[in-house]
Amino acid sequence: MISYLEAEANPVRNTGAIRLYDAAAFEGMRKACQLTARCLDSLVDIVKPGVTTDTIDAHVLAFALANDTVPATLNYRGYTKSTCTSINHVVCHGIPNDKPLRDGDIVNIDVTLIVDGYYGDSSRMYPVGKPKRAAERLCEVTYRSLLLGLAEVKPGARMGDIGAAIQEYAESERCSVVRDFCGHGVGRIFHDAPNVLHYGKRGDGVEMRPGMIFTIEPMINLGKPHVKVLGDGWTAVTRDRSLSAQYEHTVAVTESGCEVFTYSPLGLDAPGLGLETTTLG
Ligand code: MF3
Ligand code: CO
Ligand code: CO
Questions:
Q1: Of all protein residues, whose CA lies closest to atom 2 belonging to ligand 1?
Q2: Which contiguous run of DSSP H or E holds residue 61?
Q3: N or C: which terminus of the chain has fewer CB atoms within 10 Å of its end residue's CB?
Q4: In the CATH hierarchy, which fold is given to the domain comprising 26-260?
């Protein structure tokens, strides 16, 4: 059973109902999400061969503290870092460490900053030096799949429309969609209802209504979709060790369609792909 509730009139916990946020909350989300986007922008010149993911993590923490905020992942369910850094065949939730990035790696950096109680959640792929063509192509397919998902967001559409658009395109490019992780409602709660699947059937799922806020964050593999979580309890990798990529935006359903809160103010939503605009070409 799906229900909707007024976000402001209800306590801040995941009740399973879908919150509908008001204009003041949209303003709060714009602030949080734009700070997250600026943080991700600031990493473009930092990610290069030889740099460790711990250094990237320290940079994100310093950026957050300098802006009077804290990263949402810090001490979240036992997680102790300010970012997730997922390299090559790591699908998501890679834990920053002291190993240097290597020329040709592709790394997803996922940041969530909390501003005035609102969560801005976004991630991008960063090329390290010069990745191989196959890795670049995977990033491009994954980014385009996110844009196709965004294009489905409008009142009256169904959540399944998002998943179908992403899956149809990714599979047409001979890539696969990870099933084990999904996007999520977000706002005054980090991970809230509804689940946002990146695969599925048009017409399935919850109806989108103005005021809903959620992430779309497809994880796309060059090989099979299957993942396993390593012994650290977090790091998810492809079972076949094929490359995996992910981009994430936080978006809202508006009266007329969709507002993407986490767009880069500098047009760096897909750094290194030679795409300067944020919209589908
Ligand atoms: N930012 C991730 C997401 O997109 C969640 C990371 S939770 C963590 O939902 F604990 F792994 F950091
Ligand atoms: Co997310
Ligand atoms: Co995220």
A1: 110
A2: helix 53-66
A3: N
A4: Creatine Amidinohydrolase (3.90.230)
